[in-house]
Amino acid sequence: MSAGALGAGFWKPGFARGAQSNPAIAKAIEAVKAAIPKAQADPDRPVYHFRPPAQWNNDPNGTIFYRGWHHLFYQHNPYEAKWGHMHWGHARSRDLVNWEHLPIALWPSLERGEEHVYSGGAIAGPDGRPVLFYTSIGQRDPEQWLALPTDDDLITWEKYPGNPVVSLKHHGALKVDSWRDPFLFREAGRTFMVTGGNLGQRGGYAAVQLYEAQDRQLTQWKHLGPIFRHPDRSVRNIECPNFFKLNGKWVLLISPHRPVEYFVGDFDLARNRFVPETQGVLDPGDDYASNVSFDDRGQCILWLWARTNTPPEKGWNSAMALPRVLTIGEDGHLRQTPVPALATLRGPESSMANLLLEKKTVPLGEKASGDCLELDVTFEITTARSVGLRVRCSSDGKRATEIAFEPGSGMLTVESRKGYVGRDKKLHLRVFLDKRLMEVYANDGAGAMLIALAGEPADQGLELLARNGTATLRSLQAWNMKPATFSLEHF
Ligand code: FRU
Q1: Is the N or the C terminus of the chain less surrounded, counting Cβ atoms within 10 Å?
Q2: Is 489 left (phi over 0), alpha (psi -120 to 50) or beta?
C-alpha cells in the first residue's frame, strides 16, 4: 500500500507511516502479507469471525473503545501459523462485525533482551489516550511493561523508557510464579492492575495479585497483595485475569489452563478482598484467554480466543470468538449474547414452524443447509429425553456434529462438552456456523459454547433431532451469513 493510495484526508503523519518505519514491525508485516494468499485460499477458514490477515493468533489483548472505534489487539505470530515470536496484532471496528486490519502494534525488543510481548490490557492514560501494559518475556524474570501511542489512531507505539513499571521486586518476600497478563481498571478515582500466576512452593495456589498506580502517568506501582486464590487446590495457575465492575457487582474471569471460569461477588476496596458469591464455567468449548472492553453505552463486551488447531501449512491458525455482550442474570450468573450487529450479515432467510418431531432425526434437506449460517430455533419438549440439531452432516449421514439438550438434567452437550443451560421444557438456541467454527447460545445467553468443528467442507447438511419421545419444533429461522469485511487498506 503506497502513501498515495491511502487517499487525501486519511494520510496524516503518524498513520501507518510511523509503524512501517520501525524495521521490526515492517519485517513482521511483510511476513504476514506473504502468507495471506495461502490463508485466503483455504475453504475452511472462518469468514465472519475476526481473524488476523494470516498466520497465528491467540489471546485478545488491550481491548478498548476509543473515539468511536473498538480496538482489538491480539497475541500474534507474524512468522508462522503456530505459537511463537509473540507480537501484538491490531485491528479496529466501528460495529464489532467489520474490521480494518492495522499495522502490528507491539514487537519484541530483541536488543533489550525481550523475546516475546505477552498478553496484557489497555486503559486511558493521563491525556485520555489509551496506553498498553503487557508482560515482557526474555531470558530473565517476567516484567510488566508500558507502551504509549504517538497518534490518536493508536497506530504507532513507543515503549516507556523507564520499563519495567512492575517487576517481581514489587512483591517483596512473596514469590509469584508464571507471573503475567496485566489487566487494568479504575475504581473510586484510583487505577489498579491485576496479574495472574501462582504462589508456587509457598502454597501451591493459583492467585490473582492486585497493584495500585502511584502516579498519573501510570509508571509507579504498589503491590497491594493477592485479591483471589482459587478455591480448587488442583488449579495450579491463573492466566489472563480480568477484574471489573458489572451491574453493581464485581466479576473476575480467569483462564486456569482449562475452560475460562467466572466468579461474581463484591470487592472490598478498603481490605483489598474480592468475595465471590457465584461462580461457573464461562464456556466449556474451545475458547480461552478472555478480555473485556466497555463501549460508549457502557455495555461490557467479552472477547475470547477461538482455538482452531489448524495445521500450520494452511497459513492461518485460530480466530476470535464473536464479540459477546456480558451481563449478570437475576440468579447472579453471567449471561453472554453475541453482539446484535451480527444481524447485518444475514442474507436470505428460510423458516419453518410447528413441526412435530417423533422420529429420531429429521433432515432439513433443501430447506436449510450450509456451513455459514445463523440459526434461531425454539423447541417445546413433551416427552423426548433429548432434543437438538445435527449440523455439518455429510450426505451419507455418517459425519455430523450434534447439539443435544436433555431437559432432565438441563445440560446442553456438543461433542464431549457439556454446559448447564436450565431445566426447562422449552429450549431456545442460536447457532452460528462459520466454516471451522460454531458457536451455540442457549436460553438468552444462559449457556454459550464455541466449538472448533472437524469434518469436510462438503458436509453441509442440517437435521433436527428428538430422541426417546416427542417434541415440537416451535420455530426455526435460518439465514445464510455473508462474510464480514476485513480491510487491508491500512495494514
Ligand atoms: C494464554 C497465554 C498467556 C500469555 C500468552 C502468551 O493463552 O498463555 O498467559 O501471556 O498466552 O502468548
Answers
A1: N
A2: alpha
Instruction: List, for residues 375-405, the tens digit of each pLDDT value.
Output: 999 999 999 999 999 999 999 988 999 999 9
Shortest-distance Cα residue to atom 6 of ligand 1: 118
Long-range CB pairs of 111-116, under 8 A, 24+ apart, other chains included: 112/138, 113/138, 113/139, 113/140, 114/138, 114/145, 115/139, 116/85, 116/86
Ligand 1 proximity of 100 Cβ (cutoff 6 Å): no
Q: How many residues does the chain have?
A: 491
Measured distance CA(61)–CA(72) in Å, rounded: 7
C-alpha closest to that of 146 among 75, 88, 219, 91? 219
What whole-number distance in Å separates Cα of residue 408 and Cα of residue 283? 21
The confidence score (pLDDT) of residue 14 equals 45
Does this model's pTM top 0.70? yes
- Is 135 close to ligand 1, i.e. is its CB under 6 Å away? yes
Q: What are 33-81's pLDDT values in tens digits?
A: 999 999 999 999 999 999 999 999 999 999 999 999 999 999 999 999 9
Strands laid side by side in the 417-420 sheet: 361-363, 461-467, 386-393, 401-406, 411-414, 417-420
In this structure, the dihedral spanned by the alpha carbons of residues 156, 159, 160 and 161, taken in order and rounded to 10 degrees, is -120
Q: Beta strands of 162-260 (E only): which ranges?
A: 177-187, 190-198, 207-213, 221-229, 239-246, 249-255
Cα–Cα nearest to 243, from 222, 220, 216, 212: 212
| Count of C-beta atoms within a 10 Å radius of residue 393 | 23
Single-letter residue type at 205:
Y
**Nearest atom, ligand 1, residue 120 CA:** 10
The amino acid present at 100, given as its one-letter code, is E
465 pairs with which residues across the strands?
361, 388
Please report the sign of the dihedral spanned by the C-alpha atoms of residue 151, residue 152, residue 157, residue 161: positive
pLDDT digits (tens, 9 = 90+) for 302-352: 999 999 999 999 999 999 999 999 999 999 999 999 999 999 999 999 999
- How wide is the angle at C-alpha 215 spanned by C-alphas 298 and 118, nearest 5°? 65
Instruction: Kindly report the backbone phi and psi dihedral angles of residue 149, in degrees, each rounded to the nearest multiple of 5, phi listed first.
Output: -85, 155
Mutate to test the pocket of ligand 1, among 57, 115, 119, 194 (most ligand atoms within 8 A of CB): 119
Q: Which residues contact 177 (CB under 8 A, 6 or more apart)?
A: 197, 198, 199, 200, 237
